[in-house]
Design goal:
single chain, about 300 residues, alpha+beta, Pseudouridine synthase, Archaeosine Trna-guanine Transglycosylase, Chain: A, domain 4, 3 domains, nine-stranded mixed sheet
Length: about 300
């Protein structure tokens, strides 16, 4: 079963927890995600199923949008509300103009220190595993970009924000650094991811909605493919930066066997999406020369995508 599902991740689950739940709901082992979310965070978590897990290589540097709340007055060891306070609590009263001026300083390309409780690897070990054991976590700054960062509302010691950031940016670190600049400490109280690449909350479904859509066949063993198709992300909307072409039967057969084909309609494109019918994504092809394209990635047939519309 191939497909792409956008899950509205609930708070309290890791991204891997969500993957495991989807595996159980669908009875399928081959499920992966396109970018982790912290356990306390909610929102857009794209999942790829079956041979479409090979799409992950195209989403390693995807931009993301968030909305959330930063609480000022004390910092925590995790940089969010799940951690233990690391600074004395202070009484803080913020103003909108003050927070907007502070946010302006972060809207740029800069070097950011990842949180000690993060998935960054230290000699092959995730930093959060070392931090939990109270071991030294030696991380290095990484280049990040905050493209937009707007404080939309202030409520006493809390600043509500929206942000559009490049891949690798930690909003927890942004909150922590803002607290240090104000000298009062701060942490990320809540975070909701509203988009990753072309995937948005409008495309997202809860785990409960997925389970209901999947259902079970009368035999009680296989998921309801019709219900899954209705809530799956339409393959034609994937990788919008690549032109799409529908291959006829002979061309599709050549592509599925890994052989180069002529695609004169797309002679100027470097990479293209090749479909058989409307929903069956069969390959990502790369131009060799002229109108000759080689299928760089070939996807096997799918129970969801093979349906014709």
């Amino acid at each position: 079963m191939n497909g792409v599902l956008i899950i509205d991740k609930p708070a309290g689950l890791t991204s891997h927890d969500v993957v495991n739940r989807v595996r159980r709901i669908l009875g399928q082992r081959s499920v992966g995600h396109l970018g982790t979310l912290d356990p306390s965070a909610t929102g857009v978590l794209p999942l790829v199923l079956g041979s479409l897990t090979r799409l992950a290589q195209f989403y390693t540097a995807s931009d993301k949008t968030y909305e959330g709340v930063i609480r000022f007055g004390f910092a925590t060891d995790t940089y969010d509300a799940d951690g233990e306070p690391t600074t004395p609590a202070q009484s803080v009263s913020l103003t909108l103009s003050q927070m907007q001026d502070l946010a302006d300083q972060f809207r740029r390309v800069s070097e950011q220190m990842p949180p000690p409780f993060s998935a960054k690897k230290i000699q092959g070990v995730p930093a959060y595993k070392l931090a939990r054991k109270k071991k030294e976590v030696e991380l290095h700054p990484v280049k990040v970009e905050i493209k937009t960062f707007d404080i939309v509302h202030v409520d006493s010691d809390r600043a509500h924000f929206r942000a559009y950031v490049a891949s690798g940016t930690y909003m927890r670190s942004v909150a922590h650094d803002m607290g240090r600049q104000l000298g009062c400490g701060a942490h990320l109280e809540s975070l909701r991811r509203t988009s990753v690449a072309e995937f948005t909350l409008e495309d997202a479904h809860t785990l409960e909605e997925l389970a209901e859509a999947a259902g079970k066949s009368s035999a009680g063993k296989s998921p309801n493919l019709g219900g899954l198709e209705e809530i799956s992300f339409h393959p034609r909307k994937l990788l919008p930066q690549f032109p799409a072409i529908a291959a006829d039967e002979p061309t599709a057969a050549l592509i599925r066997s890994g052989r180069p084909v002529n695609l004169p309609e797309l002679s100027r494109a470097r990479q293209v999406k090749v479909f058989y019918g409307q929903r069956d994504l069969i390959a990502i092809a790369t131009r060799i020369a002229g109108t000759l394209f080689h299928p760089k990635i070939v996807f096997s047939g799918s129970d969801i995508a093979v349906r014709r519309t």
